[in-house]
């Protein structure tokens, strides 16, 4: 699949929400939470169903975001349901800093691609045989880091593992610890979180670890059977900007600590 050129007005629109260099004393990477939802706040037609919501214009924007992040994180539910590639197909910028789809077209896509991070405590997803592995083998993507509860007896070739411990209260991996480890152990300075529902719901409630929120709103309804994303309690946003495309709109914002 080849992408259309990036619509030029997306660059200034996204500028203030893209990763900035964090000070070396910062314990975690810059984190962007980004996903596509329908008008009825669904991210897929049903559990485990890969669903295209973004049209080409906003799909290119997602690849532009991938270009600007060192890591791309999804939960095991998404890895199993979508068999995603998680590489970057947007070709980059020229030496003058101009967005230019032609300049780097001959370079391997793996250069522009973020490192996939799969949160998979009980190791249900396999890299072997996945689209990610195909892309890696073709020089079009990077191999993943898999976040697990314990190291597998038979580690998969090319996979790096991060062993995490569960938070006593929630039974989940602790986000600040996990993100801190991605920075300190794997030198990832920026991470884009794409989903799925479980991960998005958790992170919408975490202004302490999310720096930017970029949501594509597709002009479609996915209906009552769709997988809805909604935080457990109300969330207020600040620094809100909207971009309008042919079919989709994009909202960029920051999460705030304030109550409603
Ligand atoms: N429209 C969009 O932008 C996107 C849509 N999706 C859709 O989302 C759906 C998948 O969503 P979900 O089933 O909710 O899966 P998910 O991708 O959120 O993964 C949930 C699983 O990840 C693991 N996990 C996540 N956070 C964890 C933590 N803090 N500690 C320990 N384990 C953790 C657990 O195993 C959990 O069962 C699919 O239908 C997919 O197509 C996924 C990504 C983006
Ligand atoms: N931005 C966006 N729009 C949609 O309509 C989507 N369904 C998604 N899904 C995310 O993209 C992953 C697929 O990536 P590849 O194209 O295979 O690289 C999918 O797993 C979700 O994370 N995103």
From TrEMBL:
<keyword id="KW-0560">Oxidoreductase</keyword>
<feature type="domain" description="Bacterial bifunctional deaminase-reductase C-terminal">
    <location>
        <begin position="29"/>
        <end position="248"/>
    </location>
</feature>
<dbReference type="InterPro" id="IPR002734">
    <property type="entry name" value="RibDG_C"/>
</dbReference>
<comment type="pathway">
    <text>Cofactor biosynthesis; riboflavin biosynthesis.</text>
</comment>
<dbReference type="GO" id="GO:0008703">
    <property type="term" value="F:5-amino-6-(5-phosphoribosylamino)uracil reductase activity"/>
</dbReference>
<feature type="compositionally biased region" description="Basic and acidic residues">
    <location>
        <begin position="91"/>
        <end position="109"/>
    </location>
</feature>
<comment type="similarity">
    <text>Belongs to the HTP reductase family.</text>
</comment>
<dbReference type="InterPro" id="IPR024072">
    <property type="entry name" value="DHFR-like_dom_sf"/>
</dbReference>
<feature type="region of interest" description="Disordered">
    <location>
        <begin position="88"/>
        <end position="112"/>
    </location>
</feature>
<keyword id="KW-0686">Riboflavin biosynthesis</keyword>
<protein>
    <recommendedName>
        <fullName>2,5-diamino-6-ribosylamino-4(3H)-pyrimidinone 5'-phosphate reductase</fullName>
        <ecNumber>1.1.1.302</ecNumber>
    </recommendedName>
</protein>
<dbReference type="Pfam" id="PF01872">
    <property type="entry name" value="RibD_C"/>
</dbReference>
<dbReference type="GO" id="GO:0009231">
    <property type="term" value="P:riboflavin biosynthetic process"/>
</dbReference>
<dbReference type="InterPro" id="IPR050765">
    <property type="entry name" value="Riboflavin_Biosynth_HTPR"/>
</dbReference>
<keyword id="KW-0521">NADP</keyword>
<comment type="function">
    <text>Catalyzes an early step in riboflavin biosynthesis, the NADPH-dependent reduction of the ribose side chain of 2,5-diamino-6-ribosylamino-4(3H)-pyrimidinone 5'-phosphate, yielding 2,5-diamino-6-ribitylamino-4(3H)-pyrimidinone 5'-phosphate.</text>
</comment>
């Amino acid at each position: 699949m080849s992408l259309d050129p990036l619509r030029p007005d997306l660059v200034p629109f996204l500028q203030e929400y893209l990763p900035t260099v964090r000070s070396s004393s910062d314990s975690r990477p810059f984190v962007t939470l980004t996903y596509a939802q329908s008008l009825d706040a669904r991210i897929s037609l049903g559990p485990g169903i890969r669903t295209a919501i973004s049209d080409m214009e906003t799909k290119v924007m997602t690849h532009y975001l991938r270009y600007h992040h060192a890591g791309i994180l999804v939960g095991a539910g998404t890895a199993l349901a979508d068999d995603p590639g998680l590489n970057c197909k947007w070709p980059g910028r020229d030496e003058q800093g101009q967005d230019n789809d032609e300049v780097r077209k001959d370079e391997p896509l793996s250069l522009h691609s973020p490192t996939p991070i799969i949160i998979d405590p009980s190791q249900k997803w396999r890299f072997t045989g996945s689209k990610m592995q195909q892309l890696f083998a073709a020089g079009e993507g990077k191999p993943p880091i898999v976040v697990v509860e314990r190291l597998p007896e038979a580690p998969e070739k090319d996979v790096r593992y991060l062993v995490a411990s569960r938070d006593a209260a929630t039974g989940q991996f602790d986000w600040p610890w996990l993100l801190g480890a991605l920075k300190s152990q794997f030198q990832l300075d920026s991470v884009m979180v794409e989903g799925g529902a479980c991960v998005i719901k958790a992170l919408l409630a975490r202004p302490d670890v999310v720096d930017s929120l970029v949501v594509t709103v597709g002009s479609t309804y996915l209906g009552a059977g769709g997988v809805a994303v909604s935080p457990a309690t109300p969330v207020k946003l600040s620094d809100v900007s909207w971009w309008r495309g042919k079919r989709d709109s994009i909202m960029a914002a920051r999460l705030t600590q304030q109550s409603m």
